[in-house]
Fold each of these.
Amino acid sequence: MAVTARSRRVKPAGGFELAAWYFMRISGLFLVFLALGHLCIMHLIHNVESINYNFVSDRWTNPRTGYIWRLWDLTMVNLAILHGFNGLRQILEEWINQAKSRVLLRTGIWIFAGALLLLGNYAILMFVKDADYLKNRRDAAADAVTVKAGVERSGSPRTRASVVVFDAQR
Amino acid sequence: MSVYRRGLVSRWVEGLRYGGGVGQWSWLRHRSTGLGILLYLVVHIWDTFLVIFSPASYDAIMGIYGGKFDGVEYPLLRWAFRLGELGLIASVVFHAVNGLRVILFDLSPIRAVGAQKELFWAVTALFFFIMIPVAFIVIHSLVAEPTTVTAAIMLRLDLVRSFAY
């Protein structure tokens, strides 16, 4: 048993690789909760087919809880990109063993990851609700429902009104 | 300095022949699910960036994820994306559960190597324990209108929805 344990020496001795090794474990532990929680909220409690601009803007600009979701998403996106691209780097470095190619590979990966980090952080931090867009959408939906209700002439006025409200909310 | 390096195909075949036991397959799955998740992550950051750049495009893309293109629903597109969604969830769940197994190996290598097979089956069991209800929920929302029992469950879910969003 001691032999097998000794042969599985994967922890790097020091330097950047050791820091990366620790980072993968710690960010992984955080991501278990952040990413699985995110999936649970978005795919099970809600549904891909009901998520749209209205949903996201309400979520991020809610006066009481908005900053919690932004903080959640911010932590998750940063950890996930660094975790993911470091994993990709580790995989590719098993296949690419020339020093020059490795420098090129690392440069490319971190530039790409950095660009994605910028996009993700910018969207989450700088988001402002586009009220005009939502109003236009709501008006268009209400028009469509009014036309439909007029043609079908079914259901009480109250049902029709609630349909309008329901559609407008979506 | 010349280093002998085998070709892609022979490395692949040798990898399949390599007698690594259960750990070999965990390793391969951890890797392939990780790559798959990263691919989706890149797409997902781009599509979410549209929320600030162009709300209309964001809604169009979200429509495609739900099988709607230009307001028209295409069942095949819907099924393809929703089954892809299930695959994504399965990948993340496996990567998470197996990642915890990897951390156990790092905390106590000697004990973990001794219990290697047990840990592999524990990961498999936990994966299915999570994925069976998840698969039921995702596929149920595809095939069935919420009418009887599920409607009641969904009504109660509204309370959860009102603060978890």
Note: Chain B has a mean pLDDT of 85.
Amino acid sequence: MRLTLFNVVVAVIIAIAFAAVNAAYLVWAERRGAARIQRRPGPNINGPFGLLQPPLDGIKLMAKQLTIPGGADKILFIAAPVLAMFPAIMSFVTIPFSENIVAKNMNVGVLMIFAFAALGSTSLLFAGWSSRNKYAMMASIRAVSQTVAYEIPMLITTITVVMIAGSMDLMEIVHQQSGSILSWNIFPLFGRSHNILMPMSFLIFFTCTLAETNRAPFDLGEAESELVAGFHTEYGSMGFGLFFMGEYANIVIGSCMTTILFLGGWGCPFGLFPGVWWFIIKLYLLIATFIWIRWTFPRTTIYGLLNLSWKILIPLSLFNLLFTAGLLKVF
Amino acid sequence: MICEETKRALQKLFPADEVIAETPEEAVDDSEKKAKKPVPRANGLLERDYAVHGYHLDAQVAADQVVEAVGILDKADFFIESITGVDWIKDNQLEVIYDFSRYDFDLCRVVIRTRVDRNNPEVPTITEIYAGANWHERETHDFFGIKFIGHPHLIPLLLPEDADFHPLLKDYKA
Amino acid sequence: MSSPIQLKPDETFILNVGPQHPATHGVLRVKMEMNGEYIVNAETVIGYIHRMHEKMGELKTYPQFLMNLSRMDYLGALGYSHGHVLVVEKASGIEVPERAEYIRAIMVELNRIASHLFWFGAFVMDLGGFSPLMYALQDREHILDMLEAVTGSRLTYCYFRYGGLYNDVDDQFVASARKFIPRMRKSLKKYHKLVTGNVIFRKRLEGIAPLSKETCRKYGASSAVARGSGINFDVRKNEPYSVYPEFDFDIPVYHECDSLARYNVRMDEIEQSLRIIEQGLDKLPGGPIMPEKKPKIIKPPEGDYYQAVETARGSFGVRLVSDGGKTPYRLKLRSPTYSNMHLFDESCRGMLIMDALAFMGSLDLVIPEIDR
């Protein structure tokens, strides 16, 4: 693909559209999924299967006034929801969906995605801090300590994968795993490392994704039974809408990363017909797991959550990093 | 069993009296009752018929004996059920009723009651003994205006914060 | 740039939980003095929906007041009516036919299960798990359907009359109640699998908010709050009333004193209530549901009467002071959650806010019942 300005602009627009549509329709999927789990119909009035629900919700939210509480820090209050959505969308630019479908491949793709992911926590901090609401403040402090705690095992696990692939290029990482399910990083019998601990790494990464995206059972940032609505307590209108969509965009990014780093990207489990459809299937299976987990588990405590990261996930991921390094030296 | 013990312990509050088996008012028939003007009961300990009244011991004490009487029950492991009042407007008195019961199977319900002057209703608090009396006393203060001397936080609980009326007094008109 | 909320490091701040807060399940307000996530001090403020039922009791005649009882506790309304009719029957010496007593017990137990189911769902929702509420509501729906068919209402029942009942049960009710028992047992198994065994759930509750026996006694706690603290206290057993001595059932008691113990007690109580219903249906005698001789106007003789019953939320007491008139001279309603809620202030000191709210959920609060 030749890199012209036109190409890049089109690709970026498509990436943004993909992120936005995904975010909007994941809300629908979440509601339908929750309804299925809870044995009720869910949104099914607007359009076939309630498919018109997300745009209608969007219109409703946009028609509302954005109220800014008195005494709030106005600039940060307005900046926070934008900051929640922006990094997620930007991350899509570098994600390769297949051999050819990628907006802009970079040799430091992994780094870029994590840099943008780190920006996400500032939006939570801004939102809670600027709202002048004690619930929001407490929630944002929780959310930031949580994000910091879980970024570490997540990065260590990613470094393990990067080490195996020998590259930070997402394309390259997927190419490393080409072949059948046995060469994927989740179960790398034919891969470079032959590391039997990789399934554990996959679970660590997945858990961290759950925590990073503030999803149940780690949704302490918006624990609605305790902190009303958490960091977005004071937000209404599209400010709330952006937070909401940002959360789902982050889920998509997290699932994309899991797919690329561990599940062989667009590779077929049997080594046949690799293509974007495999990527999509894996992506949505992971997202369905997200939804499934959210509607099954109760919420953890903040200390249980931090202990899990600092006392279990970080030591385990560090051990696996060293173990993998040793294996790479041997084989 | 525990009833007997409690009875003996409470009896010490009234050195002169003997235990009366049943209320004298109930013994006399209706015509006689109507004839004489009912007088408020004198302080003392009564043993009540559980099947009729739903409690075993009924001790009416002077206001300054309340803490002592409740202390006896506390030592005997009773739990506090409720505190409430009754407005005996005809006698120009307010009655405070303390209900106690037990957690074990040694069934014994005890009622402690005290009558105070309606114009100056003051009863010592028992929050020192039963922390749970706090709300009950506040509620009784809300409804009857009875002042619990020594109560740590005697502000309206169920009524609005600025309430200066006492709705369960018989002369209260909404 | 200065923070909108200014705090010195060792300073505490006041967090107003309620009166509109998702965890309080009603208009309850707790003023919490917080140090970060820890509660330093708490003061519960109640009375937002105080309706002065006791004054209404003095102003209305006895039958007129019957419907007020179910407005006290909207989840377990029948238990409250039961206490009231029992004390009036006791005072005025009305004999209740045996069939009516059995039907009362069955209905109260069904209502207790419905109340516990709702509590179960709401409690797990307090902990962040949403789905069990929907499952619990579905089972509760069966009970409400059954009760509606007999009593005519779904929530605020006015079913008991002095001396008997408003309506007799039919074969259809008996059949559906019999069908309900195994279905409920099956769902109970499912709940234990889904929720009780969940590691996050257990971690959230084990060892949280220990209540000593002494605290329970000083505050007069009852229901699962007392039974979770190792106190074997259930008015149905301790002070048998109605036909409860005829039934073979156990009082679940747990000695852990924590929130999980309170949860376990309520879940076991559902099973015990099912046992009572089962036996009640087996033993259900024939005959009338209202006594043949009943005074036209209820006028209990002068005196002072007390009756305690075990409702879904604990020991509910009615004190009736009668002067022989058509209306009570004084009607005191001793509500169980009033006492249970009272110990929250003292017990939640030093707890994390999320543990404190889980603890509040384990107390099974119904605010209209506290405020009366």
Note: The mean pLDDT of chain C is 85.
